[in-house]
Amino acid sequence: MADRPELIVPRLETLGLSTARPLVLVDVDEVLGLFMQGFGDFLAGEGLEMRIDRFALFQNIYRPGATEHLEIEAGRKLYEAFFGGHCHEIEPAPGAIDALNRLAKSAEILILSNAPAEAERLRTAWLRQHGLPHPLILNSGPKGPIAAGLVAQTRHRTAFVDDLLPNLDSVADHSPRTATFQHVADLRLRPYAPRSERHPRIDDWAELGDAIEAAVRP
C-alpha cells in the first residue's frame, strides 16, 4: 500500500487569519451552499434527474423513467464536471451569509471544503460573489487531521460545521476541544440525514450562528 502524502497544514497568519480570536471552520456543500439543488439543476441540463430518496449522492441520480440509479462511475464523472465548471452556480443556504457576517465580527472564519482541486477558482469566486472574503482550503478525505493542525495554532476556542457525520466525528476525534455542529441545508435531505448525539444538529442558520458564537465566546 502506498504511503499517503504528508499533510501540509497552512499557517493561519499566511491565510490572513489572526490567532488572537476564536476560529470557526465551515463546510460549503449543504452547509453554506445548496449543493444538491445546484447539482440537480446541472444534471437536468444533462438530461438526467436528481431524485432525493436517501442520504446519498450518486445513488440519487437517475435517467428519466429509470427505476435503478445511474452507474456510480458515470455519476462520479458528472460530479467532476460540475465542480470543474459549474460549482459557482449554487445558491447560498438560507440565512448562512448573514450568520457568517455576524460571526466574523468576533471570530476568524475559515472555509474548509472537500472538493476537487480544479474547483478552487470557482469556489473562491462564489464566496466573493456572496460577500464572504474568508480564506478557502480544499481538502480530501476526513477533515480531522487538517482541522487539528489548524486548531493547534490558536489557544482560543474553535468550532466546526459540516453536514456529514464522518467529517464531524473525524474532527471531534482529532481535536476534542473543538465544538462540532451538524447542519443540513437542503429541506429534501433533512429527513434522511443521520444524526449523532456527539454533534448538535441545527438546521436553521440563525440559531446555528447563535450556538457557534456561544461555543467560541471567551
Strand-helix topology:
Layout lengths: L22 E4 L8 H11 L3 E2 L10 E2 L9 H14 L10 H8 L4 E7 L5 H10 L6 E4 L4 H8 L6 E5 L2 H10 L4 E4 L22 H12 L2
Parallel strand pairs: 1-4, 1-6, 4-5, 6-7
Antiparallel strand pairs: 2-3
Characterise the protein shown here.
This protein has helices spanning 35-45, 72-85, 96-103, 120-129, 144-151, 165-174, 205-216; strands spanning 23-26, 49-50, 61-62, 108-114, 136-139, 158-162, 179-182. The strands form two sheets. It has a five-stranded parallel β-sheet, with helices on both faces. With 218 residues, the protein is of the alpha/beta class.
Order of helices and strands: EHEEHHEHEHEHEH
What Rg do the Cα atoms give? 17 Å
The tally of beta strands, per DSSP, is 7
Give me the secondary-structure category.
Answer: alpha/beta
Distance between the termini: 45 Å
Percent range for β-strand residues = 5-15%
Rounded mean pLDDT is 95
Number of helices: 7
Shape: globular
Low-confidence stretches: none
Strand order of the largest sheet: 5-4-1-6-7
What does the largest sheet look like? 5 strands, parallel
Percent helix among the residues? 25-40%
